[in-house]
Request: fold
Amino acid sequence: MAKVFNWQIGREMDYPFEGHRPQRQFAMIFDTNKCIACQTCTVACKTTWTPGRGQEYMYWNNVETKPYGYYPLGWDVRILEALGVQEMDGPVYRGKTLFDATPTGEPILGYLPEDMDYAHPNIGEDDCAGTMTQGAHLTLPHMQWMFYLPRICNHCTYPACLAACPRQSIYKRPEDGIVLLDQSRCRGYRECVRGCPYKKTYFNAVTRVSEKCIGCYPAIEQGRQTQCTIACIGKIRLQGFLGKPDHPNEDNPLDYLVFVRKLALPLYPQFGLEPNTYYIPPVHVPADFLRQMFGWGVEQAVELYRRVAEDKKLLGALTLFGSTPQIIHYFRVDGDSAIGYDATEKELVRVPLHEPLVIREAYDQAHDAYRTNIT
Amino acid sequence: MKRLCAFLAIFTLALAAARLHGQPAPPEIVAIEVPGNNPIVDPHAPLWREAPATEVTMLPQTIVVPQKPDAAVRQLSVRAVHNARWLAFRLEWADPTQSDRIVLDNFGDQVAVELPVDPHGPAPSPMMGNPGGRVNIMQWRAAFQHDIDHGPPTVQSLYPNAWADVYPDQVLSVADARAYTGALGVENPISRAAASPVLDQMAEGWGTMTVKPDQYAVGRGSWKDGRWTVVIARPLVSDDLYAPRLAPGDRTVAAFAVWEGGNREVGSRKSWSPWVPLVIGRATVPDRPGKPKGSKP
Ligand code: SF4
Ligand code: SF4
Reply:
């Protein structure tokens, strides 16, 4: 095993291969506070990439309701249980990663789901944690809660799928860090399905080999954001590239939100894969739950998010979510607008920090009709 | 390479230990000569009655990760014959579950014969060869046998209640639909409908298994009363550069691997055997010392 540095857990860890950071890393930020679980992203991905034979059940992008939603069933609770209770105080993670906890004879601590675990993609949908007692009324923060968790392959810096594949059919592209599975080399051993704790590799029973999210690389190569990002109704997503963790660029909105302001956090950093999708945590969920899911620093992120209206640059970065189909490489705030630029520093988009407020008359003279709040 | 050397050291030690303890030398397999010129594929053909059975002890694969310390198959019964053109192995083992339907959590039964590409040089590592020590691995798959007997898999054949309205390949041109066909579109040998249930492959060590561009190996398998009987055959001599060229009287080695799909065995999670001496029998040779036993007088 080689020693590699994982910035998310603040320490070196074991990985079966030498660490080579890509020139820039495909990354995505999801603002969970804005996701409405409309599944437009899921459909955008499904119709673009997985309508073929044997792909019927595949959701390279899925959106589940936490705490009871999973795809496949129990994916995170099962691997968390196998890993056991860990020390998770940060900023240096003292517990075990999935690579530290590798059982004898295995490439990584993992498990293979059952076929039936994929049979209910909407399980737990809109279910709240806990029940309401007699006479209860809602207070803030809510005593019962749930939130929507959109998920794609994390194009991890230290992918477990890659580490687990005995044929080295999975590779990470040096130019953008996208993790791809070679459809001609794969022999369908399903070691990647067993190894990926996020269960983002899928087995195609018709072709008898595995498949996974390709990070929309044909679009990325054209400077376009992924299909799930540009289709997102809630504008909760921003897709682009992360730079080097030790040399963040404040003008890159992803670097700014992840490295500089630490508003967006990785999903289960304790697994040790250095996943590259980042989540702005939901503000109404108990901190203990969030800490287990997004790591330490979650309280500060929630605090920061609550004060975002006072923070122009942060607000500017968040305003760019869903504002253009192109990849935003740089941004800045100019007066009351946030501006996004492409790789050549050409302006892509200019968005007002505050939408103008328009109050319409209840009675529409032109149409001789009363407006209701849904027209 | 380090792992390979370590393994070879362990293997040599084990052999030495076996000799020290006076255990019998490993049995040998004698391919007796039978009449005919055609490929030998029928596992129930009468000609197999003449061939002596060699019981090969199978070991769980615990050398390279991922391992299978509880691999199910511990014994393989091997018979071998050849005619003027073809060398064939008949492999028989107990397997209570016929696994030829492959879905995420269902693995297929498989068996493989391995031969050194150079039958006269030093034997390469029995575990898929080593750099410079190339091996020819012919692997029969129950799933391929099922494809040949009943047609290739479809979602409805795998999941009878599955429903799909229309597929891209039904409404788009072949070129446009290719993006949705995954491994089929790039003609992955695991995905395509095969003419033979046996994959003809070569390897030079772990993780190097390659399906040969030209396929020579043939075979057939049948499962009955909790036992698989499988024939794997290949030409004695061919223009295949990645296969041994064998003639009656030759001595070489063969090794085997078995996967019990019902025990979730796949890839390196399997049972394997070290090299077993293999003799290509002669039909009519004058009596001489060392005449392979089992060959016809
Ligand atoms: S999320 Fe899973 S499939 Fe994606 S790169 Fe990480 S380990 Fe591989
Ligand atoms: S499209 Fe956007 S808002 Fe809708 S479910 Fe997907 S991530 Fe959430």
Summary: The interface with chain B takes residues 49-56, 104-107, 112-115, 118, 164, 166-168, 183-184, 186-191, 193, 203-209, 211 of chain A (CB under 8 Å). The radius of gyration of chain A is 21 Å. The first strand of chain A starts at residue 2 and ends at 6. Residues A 35-41, 63, 148, 150, 232-234, 236-237 surround iron/sulfur cluster (ligand 2) (CB under 6 Å).
